[in-house]
């Protein structure tokens, strides 16, 4: 930070005021009540860079929020890259299928701890039907929210119904008894 910079102004000399620190930040060497050295979203790395990977000039105005330090692209380049990916996915059905397959693999592994082979084994064990109503519709993975254990594959209606009954066997039995009494 430049010594000639007024107190309470951003150290990058952009002319914008900084805020006071509310809590002591030992990791940044700031005490409660002192002014921050840079405005929010500014950091030294951004100010040392003058261009993104594609050569767009970074100004103080767009570098703070627009520059993504992990990828090295400015916001304009990031939007252009995403548009190209989306166009390619729409124009090439095989690319779209690959993206969907990869996302499905990722989601099965991340959320349920399963592989595609585990899913196929479960689907074959249930003969491709819902475990409750035996309908052959799109099946969703039913899992215990407390333990994360996968219980089976259910159609949308059965999965929602179990969720609405808070996964409680006692409440489900009471609902079944109520329907039998009033039928």
Detailed description of the structure:
A two-stranded antiparallel sheet has the order 1-2. It has a domain at 92-182: His-Me finger endonucleases (His-Me finger endonuclease fold, 3-Layer(aba) Sandwich), CATH 3.40.1800. The longest helix has 20 residues, at 93-112. The mean pLDDT is 79. It contains 7 helices and 2 strands, in the order αααααββαα. With 183 residues, the protein is mainly alpha-helical. It starts with 43 loop residues before the first helix and ends with a helix. Helix 3 packs across helix 4.
Keywords summarizing the entry:
mainly alpha; 2 strands; His-Me finger endonuclease fold; elongated; 183 residues
Helical amount among residues, as a percent range?
A: 40-55%
Low-confidence stretches: none
Total strands: the figure is 2
Characterize the largest beta sheet: strand count, sense, and whether it forms a barrel: 2 strands, antiparallel
- Helix and strand run: HHHHHEEHH
Q: Give me the side-by-side strand order of the main sheet.
A: 1-2
CATH topology group of the domain at 92-182: His-Me finger endonuclease fold
Radius of gyration computed on alpha carbons? 27 Å
Distance between the termini: 78 Å
State the oligomer.
single chain
Which helices and strands, and how do they pair?
Layout: H1 44-48, H2 60-66, H3 75-91, H4 93-112, H5 116-125, E1 139-143, E2 150-155, H6 156-164, H7 169-182
Antiparallel strand pairs: 1-2
Helix pairs in contact: 3-4
Short description:
This protein has 183 residues and is mainly alpha-helical.
């Amino acid at each position: 930070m430049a010594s000639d910079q007024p107190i309470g102004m951003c150290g990058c000399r952009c002319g914008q005021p900084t805020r006071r620190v509310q809590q002591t930040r030992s990791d940044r060497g700031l005490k409660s009540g002192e002014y921050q050295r840079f405005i929010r979203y500014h950091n030294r790395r951004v100010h040392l860079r003058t261009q993104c990977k594609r050569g767009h000039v970074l100004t103080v105005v767009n570098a703070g929020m627009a520059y993504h330090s992990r990828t090295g692209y400015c916001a304009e380049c990031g939007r252009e890259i995403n548009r190209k990916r989306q166009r390619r996915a729409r124009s090439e059905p095989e690319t779209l299928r690959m993206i969907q397959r990869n996302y499905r693999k990722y989601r099965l592994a991340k959320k349920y701890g399963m592989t595609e082979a585990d899913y196929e084994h479960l689907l074959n064990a249930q003969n491709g039907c819902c475990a409750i109503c035996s309908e052959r519709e799109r099946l969703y993975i039913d899992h215990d929210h407390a333990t994360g254990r996968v219980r089976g594959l259910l159609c949308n209606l059965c999965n929602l119904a179990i969720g609405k009954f808070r996964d409680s066997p006692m409440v489900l039995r009471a609902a079944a008894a109520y329907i039998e009494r009033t039928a």
